[in-house]
Amino acid sequence: MPARNLITDVEGLSVGHAHDESLRSGVTVILPDQPAVAAVDVRGGGPGTRETNALDAAGTISEIHGLALSGGSALGLDAATGVQSFLRERKVGLQFGDSTVPIVPQAILFDLLNGGNKDWGRRPPYQDLGYRACEAASVEFELGTVGAGYGATTERLKGGLGSASWRGNGTTVGALAAVNAAGNVVIGETEHFLAAPLEVAAEFGCRGWPKVWPEGANEPRLKGAPNQNTTLCVVATDAKLDRPALLRLAIMAQAGLARAIYPVFSPLDGDIVFAISTGTGEAPDPIWGLARLGVAAANALARAIAKGVYEATAFPDDPHSSPAYRDVFPQTKA
After folding, report:
1. Positive or negative CA dihedral for 272, 322, 309, 262?
2. At a CB cut-off of 8 Å and minimum separation 6, what does 263 contact?
3. What is the pLDDT of residues 222-235, one digit of tens each?
4. Fewer Cβ close by (within 10 Å): the C or N end of the chain?
5. Nearest of 333, 24, 16 to residue 199 by alpha carbon
6. For position 166, what pLDDT does the model report?
């Protein structure tokens, strides 16, 4: 495991958060140092996105300059405008004569009913939050109740922002997730994360796997209503991959959601995985090498999802707030 155990272990990436405590919502941005190749795969039934068509394998746009993840449902799709403003001021983007056009795909999650003050007046605040998140971008960043995961919840517990990484055979793979799932990340009502078999170095509490499968744990339980959920994910690698290979990486990484959330890909969610290549490493074998990268991406993503909930904190002095994992299960088994 690389030193940070964050997506920024992929050299050439930085991550920034901005959120508003009274709003109970926020934005997370992923900024590559250089234009990056990207692809996207959507499995949830209720996605909210911007510029994802630019990532189509048949499209003519070959690079992106940032990614934005945001709360606010469709009203949060303005976050990418703030990211574009930040990048355009720095002349980062596609050049058309004297004009600069940054390409910044985005996806949103629903956090409008979490008790925050959403009476923002004429214009949603997400454009400004997107800009502020860019200003805060760094290789070091916080997890839990931050950025796009600030107002996130799951069926039982407070959701949040998680990240993890893996390195092997000279290649680094990282993952980041804003976890606002309709389902659960723990098994039934237990302390055991669904992703427990993949845990590295007690990164989400070392609770392990239950000795006996809990009665009723296979019964799906869902929070909210249609379009009120969604887990937003990004996987990244320094391996040199073209867009079709990145699409395969995103598809394989979706298995990480299935290992960490139950149920997943429902009509209630807009679950999405972006895949990014910084291209600073070697190109893998197009069959076996790519397959191994896909496994690593899925495992890192499952761990990032569990970490997002493990690191989350509840809203203080609010009895209606979803409880935090470590408040419900305070004893850490080392």
Report:
1. negative
2. 182, 183, 220, 222
3. 887 666 789 999 99
4. C
5. 333
6. 97
Long-range contacts of the stretch 210-216 (C-beta < 8 A, 24+): 213/187, 214/187, 214/188, 214/189, 214/190, 215/188, 216/188
Residues 94-131 as b or e (16 or more Cβ within 10 Å = b): eeeeeebebbbbbbbbbbbebebebeeeeebbbbbbbb
Given a contact cutoff of 8 angstroms between Cβ atoms, the answer to whether 185 and 195 are in contact is yes
Map out the domains of the chain with their CATH numbers: 7-317 (3.60.70.12)
Q: At 82, is the pLDDT very low, low, confident or very high (cuts 50, 70, 90)?
A: very high
Cα separation of 204 and 184, whole Å? 15
Cβ(82)–Cβ(137) below 8 Å? no
Stated as kind and residue range, the H or E segment containing 210 is none
Average pLDDT, the chain: 94
Helix, strand, coil shares of the chain as percentages rounded to 5?
A: 25, 25, 50
Element (H, E) at 320: none
The span from the CA of 206 to the CA of 208, in Å, is 6
Confidence at 334, pLDDT banded by 50, 70, 90: very low
Q: Is 51 helix (H, G, I), strand (E, B) or coil?
A: coil
Q: Cis before residue 316, ω within 30 degrees of 0? A: no
Q: Closest by alpha carbon to 7, among 27, 31, 26, 25?
A: 31
- In whole angstroms, what is the distance from residue 256 CA to residue 152 CA? 19
Cα Rg of the chain, angstroms: 18
Tokens of 156: 């039982």
Q: In DSSP terms, which residues pair with 16 in a beta bridge? A: 29
